[in-house]
């Protein structure tokens, strides 16, 4: 499949057993549309699936570096294939649970379309761990379906980061952003 995202045509291989295999879902589209990616950002696409967010981030940060992480081996293989399909060389795909594959690394931007089916405890852990992996002034984006409790997740983000703002909403989804505690800007 191909998708028009942020002015680029992105080619994507998908298969059964991965999230939203027939088209880029509305939540991911909302996230990608509103990501504030700088040219030299270090970006983490957490729970990358077949790699949509990471690919777009790599295109928007040509001087930066992108890490894509997923716990699903099939998703990791597809994300690697999709990096190659799109000629992306400033990104790597890592297999593992949450932040474990990038332990000790900090990022300017972390993007998460949370795995709600994994349960609230898992999603809360990812939000908490995101704080420890953001560089000074770093941005953490979380998108979710309004009917699946993303407003409650924004409250968790507020507890963890101190401040959160709703960046966009549409199609039954809301996108929130928090910044590292060391950042004074919004």
State the CATH superfamily name.
Vaccinia Virus protein VP39
Low-confidence segments: none
Helical fraction equals 25-40%
Structural class: alpha/beta
CATH fold-level name = Rossmann fold
CATH architecture: 3-Layer(aba) Sandwich
What attributes does this structure have?
186 residues; alpha/beta; 9 strands; 30% helix
Q: Could you explain the architecture of this structure?
A:
The relative contact order is 0.15. The protein contains five helices and nine strands, in the order E-E-H-E-H-E-H-E-E-H-E-H-E-E. The mean pLDDT is 91. Helices cover 30% and strands 30% of the residues. Helix 4 (120-131) runs parallel beside helix 5. It has a single domain, classed as Vaccinia Virus protein VP39 (Rossmann fold, 3-Layer(aba) Sandwich), CATH 3.40.50. The longest helix is centred in the middle third of the chain and has 13 residues, at 73-85. It has 186 residues and is of the alpha/beta class.
């Amino acid at each position: 499949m191909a998708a028009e995202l942020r002015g680029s045509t992105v080619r994507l291989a998908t298969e059964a057993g991965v999230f939203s295999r027939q088209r880029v879902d509305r939540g991911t589209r909302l996230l990608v549309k509103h990501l504030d990616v700088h040219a030299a950002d270090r970006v983490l696409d957490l729970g990358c699936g077949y790699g949509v967010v990471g690919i777009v981030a790599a295109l928007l940060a040509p001087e930066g570096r992108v890490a894509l992480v997923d716990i699903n081996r099939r998703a990791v293989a597809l994300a690697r294939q999709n990096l190659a399909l799109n000629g992306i060389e400033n990104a790597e795909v890592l297999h593992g649970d949450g932040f474990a594959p990038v332990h000790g690394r900090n990022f300017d931007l972390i993007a998460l379309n949370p795995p709600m089916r994994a349960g609230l405890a898992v999603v809360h852990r990812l939000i908490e761990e995101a704080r420890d992996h953001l560089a000074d002034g770093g941005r953490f984006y979380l998108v979710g379906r309004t009917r699946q409790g993303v407003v409650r997740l924004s409250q968790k983000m507020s507890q963890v980061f101190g401040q959160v703002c709703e960046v966009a909403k549409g199609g039954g989804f809301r996108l929130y952003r928090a910044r590292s505690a060391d950042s004074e800007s919004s």
